[in-house]
UniProtKB/TrEMBL annotation:
The lineage of its organism: Bacteria, Bacillati, Actinomycetota, Actinomycetes, Glycomycetales. InterPro entries: DUF2306_membrane. Signal peptide: none annotated. It comes from the Bacteria. The chain crosses the membrane at residues 61-81, 93-117, 129-149, 161-185, 191-212. Keywords: Membrane, Transmembrane, Transmembrane helix. Pfam families: DUF2306. This is DUF2306 domain-containing protein.
Length: 227
């Protein structure tokens, strides 16, 4: 029997791929910037005020960029329901051996660089505090997600991993929150820099909570019989 519900069910998987495409697009600019930074380090580019901290201590930033690239690209496909349900082996393998280690590296190196790199003055105080909070929150979300899956609480596992991914993708959203003001008004003040950076993380966190709320509502909805 041809029903609207059946049409909806068959169309839904096709709409999942734009989600992954959007996440990959969000990660594109930070990935390009990271590749440029790795290229500078690998080629032994001359030190400048902008890159001196990376050239003098390249390992943390190299690990951060590589981890972020892996985390953002593989993670984009972990949240596609049809792919997750149809390829549970891959989902578990990617989560256990790729995403969790990469996420821990991203958060850990982010905290290390905030603590030990000689950052520009505009990033020294308030922005540094935000980076400590976000890095610690990301670490906590990943560890809580691992703990949840070990006790077979899959909804909590997915929720914590969505939160961790949203925080990690803050760099992509920050391109949108800081790029236009930079073009229009030039270099930001310390307060403007804080607002621009925090806006990226807050937007992503709110979107993550919206997605989690929709997943919770869907999990409580009674299954519909399709003829």
């Amino acid at each position: 029997m041809d029903t609207p519900q059946l049409h909806l069910q068959t169309r839904r998987p096709r709409r999942e791929w734009p989600i992954a495409a959007g996440l990959l697009l969000l990660a594109l600019v930070p990935s390009i910037a990271g590749a440029f930074r790795i290229g500078e380090i690998a080629s032994g580019a001359p030190e400048t005020a902008a890159n001196a901290r990376f050239m003098q201590m390249p390992l943390p930033v190299a690990l951060h960029i590589a981890g972020a690239l892996l985390y953002s690209t593989v993670g984009a496909f972990q949240f596609l329901p049809r792919l997750r349900r149809g390829h549970t082996g891959w989902h578990r393998f990617a989560g256990r051996y790729l995403l969790v280690p990469a996420g821990l590296v991203v958060a850990g190196t982010g905290l290390w660089m905030t603590a030990f790199y000689d950052t520009p003055a505009v990033d020294d105080r308030a922005v540094a505090v935000s980076r400590y909070v976000i890095g610690a929150a990301m670490l906590a979300c990943i560890l809580l997600g691992v703990a949840a899956v070990r006790r077979h609480d899959y909804f909590a596992h997915g929720s914590w991993m969505i939160r961790a991914y949203a925080l990690a993708m803050g760099a992509g959203t920050q391109v949108l929150t800081s790029g236009p003001p930079l073009l229009l008004f030039g270099e930001p003040t310390e307060l403007a820099r804080l607002l621009q950076m925090d806006a990226g993380w807050i937007i992503n966190a709110l979107v993550a909570e919206l997605i989690i709320a929709r997943r919770r509502a869907a999990s409580r909805r009674p299954a519909t019989m399709i003829a």
